[in-house]
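Table 4 source record.
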Amino acid sequence: MTLNQTLEEMYGPRGGRALALRAGRASFKAAIQQVGASIGLTAEAIQALPPSARVRQLLQFLAQGTTAHQKGVTIEVKEEGDRLIYEVQQCSACWGRTGADHCICHGTVGFLQEALEWAGVGDLYHVEERTCSAMQPQPTGSCQFAIYQD
């Protein structure tokens, strides 16, 4: 049983989602303090860039840092029109879960939301989980998050 599944069972879908979002936001804060400088991710470096470049660079840093520090997880950042796609392979938030009727990687959404806030563009950009491995009949291990301007 995954953490998200346990949260949903204990607090219901809305309560579980809210707690996972908060946990994701707290995870970013902890990660930036622990490894931010070691991967070259500093507020000064990011905030010196224009907003659109700031988001792209931030997502690239997060993808590289997560891939380097989480065994088995690979993250790619892609562009699709006016959206950036943050694709997580071997998603730990929903690994092994199938048959969900909605996207469940709320912790990753919260992580990305907090990262955008930290970079000073949180009021300009929106994060949405687009595909979730847990919604498939067989786990794909791949979840996609779209980041776009409101």
